[in-house]
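From: lab user (bench 3)
To: helpdesk
Subject: output format question, protein + nickel (II) ion

Hello, I'm new to running complex predictions and I'm not sure whether the block I got back is the full result or only part of it. Here's what I submitted:
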Amino acid sequence: MTDFFKGIPAIKYEGPDSDNDFAFRHYNPDEVVMGKAMKDHLRFAAAYWHSFAWPGGDPFGGQTFDRPWFGDSMDHARLKADVAFEMFQILGVPYFCFHDADVRPEGATFAQNTANLEAIVDYFAEKMDATGIKLLWGTANLFSHKRFMSGAATNPDPDVFAYSAATIKTCMDATMKLGGENYVLWGGREGYETLLNTDMGRERQQAGRMLQMVVDYKHKMGFKGAILIEPKPQEPTKHQYDYDVATVYGFLKEFGLEGEVQMNIEQGHAILAGHSFEHELAMARELGIFGSIDMNRNDYQSGWDTDQFPNNVPEMALAYYEVLRAGGFTTGGTNFDAKLRRQSLDPEDLILAHVGGMDACASGLKAAAAMLEDGKLEAARSDRYAGWDTADGKGLLNSDLESIMATVVADGTNPEPRSGRQERLENLVNRYL
Ligand code: XLS
Ligand code: NI
Ligand code: NI
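Helpdesk reply: Thanks, we reran it on our side. This is the complete output you should expect:
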């Protein structure tokens, strides 16, 4: 045991009336919601990068966090892992997620990076065996090091494409070895700063080819998990090719990968794309590519991916409503891609941020389940489209303009507008919260 979280107890469910900060009010792992334990609905994961690798900087100032594992040695990396697994256990999160660069020191060569990663993977494997904590997903950080400043797969320099492909292979191997349930690709710098120096056609072809290689390798190695793309419209690049779910779907179609890749949808990225979180979730469900979520909260004023811990239960209820309508998670889960504010220096801030986020998710899930079980919202939706279930409605989509016109004339069709009842439905939603 390290002493980083000294004095902080394992977090337990105490119910809504508890006034203990270090307790759950809503997240009761074994409580059954719609026939399934809450923990199996939510499948919480902690994100290594924000909680253990991020130093607290912003564009105007550097490190604010003073962590004993900040440093470049393997000893630092192992201490970081010790503390990380202590946090996972205090919180009772069943999963974690990581990038290669979060967990191992940067070596002088590719080979050294690989060796460092493999050593930490072995260290993780022991801890996972001992604690039962599992890997939700692994990924490669192809955006922080300066070699990736002009992109990874979409780089104008083929050597960077090669370095990136090789790095992805090592990260897929690490994910497979640790029994990871998904492999994520977030194209942080797969985009451009200015069209003046960018060959968009080439870059899109390169990105498509890299994705095909990832899918080929997945099948070759026998990885049973899902390959997930995480859309984001911009930041760090001015424009990112994986803009949003619909854009990525078009990309998958173009490269023949629509049956192979699903979406990891992040709240903050949806907001940056000018959508709501529930829009992106619903779109992925309709396209049959819903996979997993990165749960966080964007500040609506900032225009940045602020990655705050989620706490807006009414919004989260609508998000989990879409998750439940998609049939819930299979390989996916709720990953807290969220970081502390840079003034939140204390170890207990890190614990309480997750406690609040987990509780807000549980509240949102319970409200969503009640909405769905009650059926009023779904009944109102079906009622609105009921005309399409009649023989005439069904026939219309198989008809043609000339026949339809003949029928409109013969029947004297003259549609009467009907209320969309938005306020009534919004009032209804608020009753479940
Ligand atoms: C950044 C992304 C990143 C991915 C993993 O905005 O959310 O954290 O989730 O590379
Ligand atoms: Ni994310
Ligand atoms: Ni993000």
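A quick orientation on your result: The pocket of nickel (II) ion (ligand 2) is lined by residues 186, 230, 266, 294, 337 (CB under 6 Å). Let us know if anything else is unclear.
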